[in-house]
Amino acid sequence: MATYPATLEVTVHKSHLVTIGERLYGEAVELLRELVNNAYDADATEVRVTIAPDQVVVEDNGAGMDLEGLRRYFNIGSPEKRLHRRSPRFGRDRIGEFGIGKFASLSAASRFEVWTKQGEFQAVVSFDKAAWEQPGESWSLPLRVEPPDQARSDGTRVTLSSLTKTFDLSEVERRLIETVPMKVTDFAVYLNGRRLSSRPLTGQHIPFLEGTPYGTVHGEIVLVPASQADMAGAGIACKVKQVLVKREFFGMERWGPVAARVVGEVHADFLPLTSDRSDFIRDSAAYQAFREAMERVVAQVGQAVEQLLDVKENRRTKRVLSDVLERVRQALIRNPDYCPEGLIPIGGEAASQGPAAAVGEPPQPGGPTESIAPESRSMVSPRRKRTKRPQLKRLTPTAVIKRLKLGEQGLSCCVDHLGADGPECYTEGTVVYINRDHPLHQRFAKDTEAYELYIARLLTQEISMMKQPRSPRQAFDRQSKLLQDAFGAQRTQG
After folding, report:
1. Band (340; pLDDT cuts 50, 70, 90)
2. 364 contacts 288 by C-beta, under 8 angstroms
3. Which end of the chain is more exposed for a tag (fewer CB within 10 A), N or C?
4. CA-based R_g, the chain, Å
5. Are strands 194-195 and 188-191 parallel, antiparallel or unpaired?
6. Distance (Å, rounded) from C-alpha 426 to C-alpha 11?
């Protein structure tokens, strides 16, 4: 009977490393991100990226590597960073995990060289794609151990040569600023001798902090001015361990042109990533919790965007309301019989509360006031009936309110958000509410002249109904007369 081994040897052909390296990252600039982040994990305080036509050099002053460190560096799937999540010197939460980032160099160069120094150990390892693809199963790489240069500090330098792709400096700068931990203390990145830094954004800043069962979701969103709106740079930069993974809109792209004004970043270090760190594992429970948290954030941003748009729109709304209310006031002066009676003045603008507030209960025979001496009765104020004020709606911060005043009587007009499915307008007490979310309001608000007639129509309609007409026809006739006197027969007919 044949015998079989108890184990199977699993091997990976060395050509697969070349394939992984060439296909790991779609853009050559991504390999620079990996090299800079490796320096961050090694507790470097400075990383210098130098790009020339014939080579690219990434050099850091981190911890460097000894012989065992070099072995781990070229060992795909080394558990070193998973076992030691934080760097020894600064306690940084390490970015790398899978150990395949260095082979990303093959996406832009046919040869790379790693020089490193740690204490008394200094060595150079070379990787040449042409030599690596020669027949044979050898996995060895040329290693040259050098006498330590005492004038040089510890660190690592990676040199890419025989370039197969070109690097655009402006694109490299933009991507490095986005994808490496630029805001961390004691960490600086230089590109061709110039230190990179993230540019502060101007606009309305909206910080947020949300909790999930897997960790916190925090960050800041900025609503930039319209002059700085750029869809190419808009969206929310989703970062894990300070590094950009993906830029997303979370549904805000449906907001139209205003979406270009939404810029920001969110940090969620608990999110699981794909092997090339270009996306999240979207079917994970952690990612679903993250999406739910971001839905709450987007709702908050939506309110801020609505207010921001209202601020601009309110300038015209205030002008239109002032003009319309003055016209309606003049029309009511010409038609005093149409003016509603018993209007309650707006609080704080008039001390009197009208005749209703002065009505008191007369003394009843046998009541308590009968025992009061005649000379003191004049000092006792009669009990007053409390006037019931109308129940007013809670307004949004950007509501526009203007008052029409005739003597001691007042009528207020409030333009506010009542929802697209809400009424076009309605009246509570002496306040006429106009719904700026109504489709007709959205339509007419785009043209000032049409908007004036629209607001006037709603106001005169509500005023005519306040007079309690005997029939809808009577209310319509009153409204038509007020509009004619306010704007003239020619405009109202148009």
Report:
1. confident
2. no
3. N
4. 37
5. antiparallel
6. 77
Q: Which amino acid is at 139?
A: W
Cα–Cα dist 405/322, whole Å = 12
The most confident of the ranges 67-81, 92-106, 214-228 is: 214-228
- Which of 391, 451, 398, 450 minimizes the C-alpha distance to 426? 391
Torsion 300-304-307-309 (CA) sign: negative
Q: Give φ, ψ of 204 to 5 degrees.
A: -85, 120
Q: At what angle do helices 285-334 and 448-466 cross, to 10 degrees?
A: 70
Q: Is 174 exposed, middle or buried (0-12, 13-18, 19+ CB in 10 A)?
A: middle
Q: Using CA atoms, how far apart are residues 114 and 225, in angstroms rounded to an integer?
A: 46
The predicted pLDDT at position 346 comes to: 37
pLDDT of residue 361: 35
pTM for this predicted structure: 0.58
- Which amino acid is it at 103? F
Residues in the chain: 494
pLDDT, tens digit, 9 for 90 and up, residues 163-190: 988 889 999 998 898 888 888 889 999 9
Q: Tokens standing for 225?
A: 């001015």
Domain ranges of the chain: 15-195, 204-283, 312-347+389-493
Q: Where are the alpha helices (DSSP H) in 13-153?
A: 15-23, 29-41, 67-73, 80-83, 129-132
Listed residue (124, 105, 115) closest to 162, CA to CA? 105
- DSSP lists the bridge partners of residue 216 as 211
Q: 134 pLDDT exceeds 80? A: no
- The CATH number of the structural domain formed by 15-195 is 3.30.565.10
Report d(CA 408, CA 466) in Å as an integer.
17
- The CA-CA-CA angle for residues 483, 484, 490, to 5°, reads 120
Q: Which residues, in sequence order, are CB contacts of 382 under 8 Å at separation 6+?
A: 360, 361, 362, 363
CA quadruple 148, 152, 153, 159: dihedral sign: negative
Weakest-pLDDT range from 130-144, 295-309, 359-373: 359-373
Q: CA triplet 225, 265, 58: central angle to 5 degrees?
A: 110
247 burial (CB, 10 Å; 0-12 / 13-18 / 19+) is middle
CA–CA distances in Å: residue 245 to residues 10, 22, 118, 127:
32, 20, 31, 28
In contact, 327 and 456? CB cutoff 8 Å: yes
Predicted pLDDT of residue 24:
56
- Residue pair 416/395 in contact by the 8 Å Cβ criterion: yes
Task: Report the percentage of the chain scoring pLDDT > 90.
Answer: 41
